[in-house]
Write a structure and sequence with these properties.
Layout lengths: L2 H14 L3 H12 L3 H7 L11 E4 L9 H18 L3 H4 L1 E5 L5 H14 L4 E3 L6 H11 L3 E5 L8 E8 L9 H10 L12 H6 L3 E3 L2 H12 L13 E4 L6 H10 L5 E3 L25 H10 L3 E5 L6 E6 L5 E3 L2 H15 L6 E6 L5 H9 L2 E5 L3 H15 L2 E7 L3 E4 L8 H17 L4 H12 L1 E10 L2 H17 L4 E2 L2 E8 L13 E5 L4 E6 L5 E10 L7 H25 L5
Parallel strand pairs: 2-3, 2-4, 3-6, 7-8, 7-9, 12-13, 12-14
Antiparallel strand pairs: 1-5, 4-5, 9-10, 10-11, 14-15, 16-21, 17-18, 18-19, 19-20, 20-21
Length: 575
């Protein structure tokens, strides 16, 4: 290791760092000559991609900090001025969640934008990510920045960029912005204006409550049943995030008076004191919600993640117990509900991702709706919806990805946990009016379109050696795809690296199985993991109790997973 060169790079970064806290942090690491820590902090620049930036807070170019955000914003501003002629009149929206350093990072973002002559439409208080996405369209802004790390642990923060169409950026925008960032001067030389200077020039524009009120009106219009329920009992958790006040207000405005927030998690708190990993999918994250729901005998539990762009749902089963629905089950329920109960102006269009359940496609085909599968990430869902609407005149009504992301209609062009919670409550009230339950409705869908069960397995392989192992596994499955997985024949191999189905190339391989199942594998884009997605389709016999069919389906899914993991180990995955 060239420790002399590493020390010189670290000292140069420290001197250019505008934040005294991270300056001091780096000085301590240098004083200890902690070469492993320094090497990690300076291994690379935190990569700017279609998801923007996300990383651990700390000093150095491979961390999230004020220096990185100032340089990133300068690059974004200069790219916008080069590619969007009217950006200096339309401006850029700036929103933030309630995480550690979010306020400072958002203020730095606005300060750099206004110094570049670009109006910054700034939310003065923390807001859900979908509110920022909504504001882009509502204000006809050229772009938006949302400072958030979504559902990551408390030591993380991030920087998400939206384009003027309301969707997250896609290529070539990400590459163009990254190239512009690479040319930016050291952070302490990036021009910026204080809030007072920006306001005096009319460029720093604090957004009024009217924008948030317009968002609430827009999501209230997404409801289909629109009658609410005086008897449906709902428990809601904000997971220490920013969705609490918004979701509770929206539900009450929609006619749901029996909403009980999980008190310990209702207020924003970037420390996330009751959960280590504030993701509703993580083990233990829903324990307080479950306890609250049992105490008040709730019918449904609705959970947002900290920036309120995701939704998790629990509902009571036939035995009276609460069951956490999978992301695919929520997606199928909302998709079927919107397709069958919503008014259409043209051919309805629904979109999901290549790692989500195939069942939405079966429903869409059965109901005559347009359907697409796109790459993982909501940016692809939103942009495909815009493309088909423009070229074919379809009406986008619903999109989802299995990782708890949903959007109904076009109020936002990104996943919206608050809007989805409101529509799901509307669905539950509609079920109640029909004398059934959420899970009773799901059974109706599964009897009509098959019982799809799914699971995901993640294998963490950290470091350079882990990255090499992940590459080797992917290559081995490409070079020697299995003819059978367990007792099931592989009917088709789809290598998305080759641009399968007209999609942009992506490092994903999928094996379609005889009978309607699927196995998909891909490296994570944000973590040192390889991810495996499994789906099995079972057809219940006429009159067969669905729990019996589900038990059989789960057993077959388990066998499929075991058989595939044997194949993965044969191709280099550690035991």
């Amino acid at each position: 290791m060239d420790t002399t060169g590493l020390r010189e790079r670290a000292e140069a970064w420290r001197k250019a760092d505008p934040d005294p806290e991270t300056q001091a942090e780096l000085a301590q690491v240098l004083a200890k000559s902690d070469w492993a820590d320094l090497s990690d902090r300076f291994a690379q620049d935190l990569e700017f991609g279609t998801a923007g930036l996300r990383g651990v807070l700390g000093a150095g170019p491979n961390r999230m900090n004020r220096a990185v955000v100032r340089r990133t914003t300068a690059g974004l501003a200069r790219y916008l001025k080069a590619t969007v002629p009217d950006v200096t009149s339309r401006g850029v929206v700036v929103g933030r969640d309630a995480r550690r350093l979010s306020r400072e990072l958002a203020e730095d973002t606005a300060a750099v934008l206004v110094a570049e002559g670009i109006p910054a439409h700034v939310f003065p208080e923390p807001v859900p990510t979908p509110v920022t996405a909504f504001a882009v369209l509502h204000l006809n802004a050229a772009a938006a920045v949302m400072v958030t790390a979504s559902h990551n642990p408390p030591e993380y923060n991030g920087y998400k960029v939206y384009w003027g169409n309301g969707a997250q950026i896609v290529p070539p925008q990400d590459v163009g912005i990254a190239d512009a960032i690479a040319k930016v001067e050291p952070a302490n030389q990036v021009p910026l204006l204080t809030p007072a200077q920006g306001r005096a020039k009319g460029l720093w524009r604090d957004l009024p409550e009217d924008v948030g009120n317009a968002y609430l009106r827009a999501i209230l219009d997404l409801r289909l049943y629109k009658k609410g329920s005086d008897t449906l009992s709902i428990v809601y958790t904000a997971m220490h995030g920013v969705g609490g006040a918004w979701a509770v207000l929206a539900l009450k405005e929609a006619g749901f008076p029996r909403v009980t927030p999980v008190a310990e998690q209702q207020q924003p708190d970037g420390r996330f004191p009751t959960v280590r990993f504030p993701n509703p999918e993580e083990p233990g994250a829903m324990d307080l919600s479950l306890a609250t729901a049992e105490r008040v005998r709730a019918d449904v539990v609705l959970a947002n993640d900290p920036d309120a762009d995701r939704l998790a749902v629990m509902a009571r089963d036939a035995s009276g117990g609460l069951r956490l629905l999978t992301g695919n089950e929520v997606g199928v329920l909302l998709g079927h509900y919107v397709l069958t109960q919503g008014a259409k102006d043209g051919r309805a269009h629904v979109v999901t991702t290549i790692v989500s359940s195939t069942q939405l496609g079966e429903i869409a085909r059965g109901l005559g709706a347009a359907y697409d599968e796109v790459l993982t990430g909501f940016k692809w869902i939103a942009n495909r919806a815009l493309e088909r609407s423009r070229t074919e005149g379809t009406q986008f009504v619903f999109g989802y990805e299995e990782a708890l992301g949903y959007t109904v209609g076009t109020a936002t062009r990104d996943k919206d946990g608050v809007g989805a919670a409101l529509v799901f409550a509307d669905l539950a009230a509609w079920c109640e009016s029909r004398g059934t339950t959420v899970l009773g409705y799901l059974e109706e869908i599964q009897r009509a379109f098959g019982l799809h069960v799914g699971a995901q397995r993640n294998v963490t392989l950290p470091g350079a050696a882990g990255a090499q192992t992940i590459r080797a596994i992917m290559q081995a499955f490409r070079a020697s795809p299995p003819e059978r997985i367990g007792g099931t024949r592989v009917s088709a191999v789809r290598d998305y690296q080759q641009g399968e189905g007209g999609l942009p190339p992506s490092n994903v391989v999928a094996f379609a199985l005889e009978g309607g199942g699927r196995v998909t594998l891909r490296p994570s884009g944000t973590e040192p993991k390889i991810k495996y997605y499994f789906e099995h389709k079972e057809t219940p016999a006429p009159g067969e109790p669905l729990p019996q069919a589900r038990q059989r389906a789960e057993a077959k899914l388990s066998a499929l997973i075991d058989a595939f993991l044997v194949l993965a180990r044969e191709r280099g995955q550690p035991a």
